[in-house]
Fold this sequence. Notes:
By secondary structure, this protein is an all-alpha fold. The protein contains ten helices and no strands.
Amino acid sequence: MIEQLPNRDFSQKLLYSYIESESLRQHSEMVATAMEAYAVKLGKSKRVTEYWWTAGLLHDLDWEKYPEEHPKKAVQEILPPLGYAIEVIAAIHAHAPERTGKEPESELERYLFACDEISGFMNAVALMRPNGFDDMKVKSVRKKLKDKRFAANVPREDIQKGAELIETDLSDHILFLIEVFSN
């Protein structure tokens, strides 16, 4: 098992070298923030918390440059030679089971899956609100989830599956992330 992890500055620069889209960078940073918050909530060690943050930050690393190979390009060619931990690479591999055939199993893998689509969806909701995440309500997010035309590219079944994978009620998951993103 690889025990090293490049630092946050290195990971951030790596992200920016592969992703030019401001919205995709923001999404990656939001997922990293969500993952870090959950790691802290779950009482993970500092090292493990860094793994969670890094998996969130780099989960879509190859999406812009290699969309047809996502996330395989990152997990097979980009991240291993840079010294990223096996756990981080495995979580990135499992966050897109429809592309990789690898279902999220470990706790890190399940939380990354749970935080990915919901973070993007909640950001779309925030963009439609004058105060963004401030004073956002779970009820308004759930209402938007029912509107299939709103953020139509976000698979609702993955959002529900994510909450189930982390054994959390979807409303509680949304409330936690509202608190995380409004800070």
